[in-house]
C-alpha cells in the first residue's frame, strides 16, 4: 500500500486485509508516523525564585514527531549538567541551591532528528531574590519526584529520576531502595537517575529515593514510585486451523490468552468485528471462546481472535467449514419390551446437515413429528419416540422416518408390552406369641409369559432359608416362620423381580411373650402406720406393654393371696397399706401384658410390723351389782385383728355416774382373765365403768361406759343357785371372784 504525498493526517495505525474465496484475514497492525515540527509560542517567560531554593524551568510547549532533541542555553552558552544543574527526562532545567549569579536569560534549541528542522524558544528570564535570613544549611527536599512507570518485559531499559535540593548542595547525596533493599547498580547522574536494564517481573516493586544531607541532623527527604512490568499476551488455547461442522450444529471456537495486564480478546469474521455483525447466534463466552449456534452455510469463513494489552497484540485464526450431509443412522430403532404403565423409549438417532426432520409412524398414522403431537407420544430431541405411559394396546411396529434436503431414510422396530407385575396381597403387620408360627403373604398378579422371583428381606438383609430351616418361602411367595422368638422381630420386605416389572411391600412382625418377673424387689417399713413400701425394677415387657402389676402377700407364713390386683404399668414402687401390726409379711410382684401373667418375682425377706396399742376396745362389757359395795364386770377380748400385738392384760376404770370426778383404775395383768369384781364401793350408788386392753406397745382404746348400781342395805345378788349356796356355806366368794 502506497501513500502518495504523505501528510500529517496520514499518521496512524494500518491493517492489511487479505481475501480469497474462503474469506478474509486481518494482518497485524502497523503504525505510520509522519515527521513534523511546530513552533514555540512567541512571548518570553519570567520566573523568580528565592536564593538557595531550586529553580525548575519547564520546556516551553512545542509539537513535534518524533520528540525533539533539546539543548539548554544561557545567554548563548550551552548548559552542561553538573552536581548543581540537571536536565530531566522531561527536558526540564533544574538549578539547585540558586545564587544571584544564576540570574539571566535561558532558552532552548529543539531539533527534529527525522526531518532536520530546529527551532529556538523564546527567553525564560530567571531572577534570584535575595533572602537575608536564609541559613547556611537547608534541609533536603524533593524537587522532581519519580513517577510510577509501566514497562514491557524484555524492553531495553527504563529509568527512574529523582532530583533533590539542599544546602550545602555539595553534601547532598541521593540513594535508591527497592522493596526496602538499597540498590548499588544502575545509578548515574549524581545518583539522581536509576536505570534498570532488560526489566523482568523480578524488577516489579516499590522504589524509594532518599535524599540525605551528610553531616546534618536533618531528616532525609523521600519520594516513592511503583514500577510494574507489562507482559505481552500469549495464547493458552487456540482453535484448530480448520473446523468442519454440519448445518444446525453448535460449535465453540476456542481462544484463551494470558498476560499482564490480562489481555482483551476481540473476535473477527472475515475481517469484520463480531460486535458489528450483531448476530444473535454468535456469543463470546466468559472463557474467551466464540460459540455459534444452529450453524448455517453462510457461517463458513475465517474467524480471528485478537489478544491485546499494553505490551502488544497477537492473533490466531481458523477456517469454519459448514456443510450439507444426507441423513444417516447413528442408532437405528431396536425391538423394545416394556411393562404396562411404564415409559417406552424407541431410539432413532440420525446425522445430517441440515438436521433431518424426524417423523414417527405406526401403520399409516403419524404419532409425532415437528408439527404433530398426540398425547402420550413425544418426539425427543435425539430423534427418539417416548410413550408415557405405555398401555397394552400400544404393542406393535413403529417406523422412524428421517429426511432433509439431501435425502431420506427409514427404519422400524417392534414394541412388546407386558402386563405389569403387582403385589395384590401384600404382607400385613403381625403380632404373634412366642413359639407360634407367623405367616407373611405376598400374592401378585403378573403376565403369564413371564416368571417371578421372590426375595424376602428382614431389615434389608436377604433371607436365605436352608433345607432344615424353620423359615420357608412357599411357591406362592408366602413366608412361614415357625417357633418364633424375639430374634424374628423386624421389618420384612417381599420383593418380586420379573421382566414385567418389580414390586415390593413391607410389613412389621412383632413377637410377644409373657413379661419377665420384676427385678430387685425390696420391702421396707413406711412412715405411715400399718404400711410397707415396695420398690422394683421394671422388667422386660415381652415386647408387649405391661398392662398392670399384681402384688401378693403372705401374712405370718399363711398361703399367698392377692393384695393389690391392678397396679399401674408406669409404677416401679407402691405403698401397701391395711396391714396388721406385729405380724410378719412377705411380698412378691408379677407383671401382666397382652399375653398373660408373667412369673412372680423373688419374694422379699420376711418383714415384721412393729406392735401398736390395740385399736379396738374389749367387747360385750357386762356389769351387775353383786353386793351393796361391789359390782361384777365381765367382757370379751377385742377382735384378734385389732390386738396389734400380744395382749398383756386389761385396765378397768370406774367413777360415780354423772359426776365429773376422777376415774379409779384396776389392772388385770393376765390376758386370760376377762372379769373383775370391783369392791369397796358406796351402797346403792350408780357407777360408770370402762375397760381397755393393753399390749407391749401401750394401752388401747377404752370401751363405751356401762352403768350399774350397787345393792341396797345388806342385799347380796347371786347369779344362780350355786352361787347362793357357795355364799351361805362358806362366806369365801373372794376365792371364786377375782379381786382387782
How many separate domains make up the residues? Answer: 7
In the CATH hierarchy, what is the class of the largest domain?
Mainly Beta
Contiguous low-pLDDT stretches (5 residues minimum) are 718-739
- Going by CATH, what is the homologous superfamily of the largest domain? Immunoglobulins
According to DSSP, the number of beta strands is 69
CATH fold title of the largest domain:
Immunoglobulin-like
Amino-to-carboxy terminus distance: 163 Å
Strand content: over 45%
CATH architecture of the largest domain: Sandwich
The helix content, as a percent range, equals under 10%
Structure description:
The structure is a single chain. The protein has three helices and 69 strands. The protein has seven domains: 35-134, Immunoglobulins (Immunoglobulin-like), CATH 2.60.40; 137-230, Immunoglobulin-like; 231-323, Immunoglobulin-like, CATH 2.60.40.10; 325-418, Immunoglobulins (Immunoglobulin-like, Sandwich), CATH 2.60.40; 422-512, Immunoglobulin-like (Sandwich), CATH 2.60.40; 519-608, Immunoglobulin-like (Sandwich); 619-736, Immunoglobulins (Immunoglobulin-like, Sandwich), CATH 2.60.40.10. With 740 residues, it is mostly beta strands. Residues 718-739 have low confidence and may be disordered. The relative contact order is 0.05.
Question: What's this, in brief?
Answer:
One of its GO terms (molecular function) is cell-cell adhesion mediator activity. It is built from three helices and 69 strands.
